[in-house]
Input
Amino acid sequence: MTLNRRRLELAMPWIVIVGLLIVWQLVVDIFQIRQFILPSPVAIYEAFLQYREPIMSNAMFTLVSTLIGFGIGIVVGVLLGAVIGSSRLAYVGLYPLLIGINSVPKAAVVPILVLWMGIGQPPAITTAFMLSFFPIAVNVATGLATVEPELEDVLRSLGASRLDILRKVGLPRTMPYFFASLKVSITLAFVGSVISETIASNDGIGYLMLQAASQFRVPLMFAGVFVIASMGIATYVIFALLERRLTGWATRRQDMNFGGG
Amino acid sequence: MNAFVELDKVSLRYGEQQGTLAIEHVDLGIEAGQFAAVVGPSGCGKSSLMKLVTGLLPPTSGAVRVAGKPVNGPLKIVGMAFQNPTLLPWRNTLSNTMLPLEIVQPHRSRLRQHREEYVTLAKKLLAAVGLNGFEEKQPWMLSGGMQQRASLCRSLIHNPALLMLDEPFAALDAFTREELWSVLQDLWLERKFTCTLVTHDLREAAYLADVIFVMSARPGKIVATHRVDLPRPRTIEMTYEPKFIEILHTIRGQIAQARSDGRVSESAAAEAGNP
Output
């Protein structure tokens, strides 16, 4: 790959985003679309500047709820995945229950959570957790359950215990699956906390957007959406970088391959 | 009989009473330091036999003894290599080779203190199979033949008393395969471990083994035992001599007979012959 092409690849996401914003601005200007239907990017930016303080404080609130819920989701997801992935009985017993929990629309659960925990941060954390643990559990379980039986034979015939096999093979092999699930889960965790905030909270981006909507401050709503999206992308990038550092072996670079068949 | 590996009327059935009978009344003995090969048509339970000997599967009936002791669970002294090299992709070649040292005693407790000594040992073994200079390479950077050499090193690094090879060269091209036969023979001549090779390649069996067990189609039975009295070290040239070819012919005939007895479908043919 030439240097220019590599630079282009790095720039591509920015080109697409900036291009989209320009088209958006042009469409709004040319067709004279009114602000409470679709505000222009410039108007959204102005709204962001004007309400910077409340937007940022509410965004931080949402970020904290999301990360706490996500953290619990990682712990529970990994433990559940480890149990399901290493025991056939646990798999058979728990899988239908997990599918059931995962298929309940979380918006329908928030009122129940509010009944138990009151409004604000606790239901937001719980919703973020409920949305994020499932992909982690499923991926960790898959990684553990797909260890090659021959490799297991090699280790067992050396006298390896189950724990040895888990430490030497199971866990390292599961890392790529684990990181793939983190990238999915962190965005789901944001969805969870914002849903909960729009239903029952006096803080957070979800609450801010609901307030803005009731007052027809559409540019402010869009500013909220943008802030949420940026936080989602930022956390995703962090996990993608971690993934590349820790499980680089899983992405083989063909151009470094040598030796024939 | 005072063999190192002893199977006494061993049968193996997968599943409950209605399950398929994989192996039926197998008696065999492999002496300490002997190189044995098991050949037979595909699906005759060769791999099951390996699992029985290593204690990974318990026999349905009969007894398995290794080194005079009954086998009641996975043995702890075995080296294994399969058709698939099964190297760990997150470890380099050296670290892959040293994996058994992290599990088998006494190496396990000594490894941290005596790392240098073990690294030297592993590098020597890798050099013996022609992998010097590849210690730091990741498995995916190696060719299939090189991966199989590394897998062979991994199975021998802890000096196992028993080496079990399940079609280790089946996925390689003919030249690489012959090269690895000679590598394996050299290692065996040097270390004299007891070795069991499962294969469907008759030339491979006759080149490497002291004794060849011919198995019938499912349910697997031992239908013939051959001693190969060719001098060592054997050369590829020897595999074209009349005496060698005569051995191949006899075994081939027996396998053909075993296949027709076993009523194997026509479509499964062509596997027992030479590649």
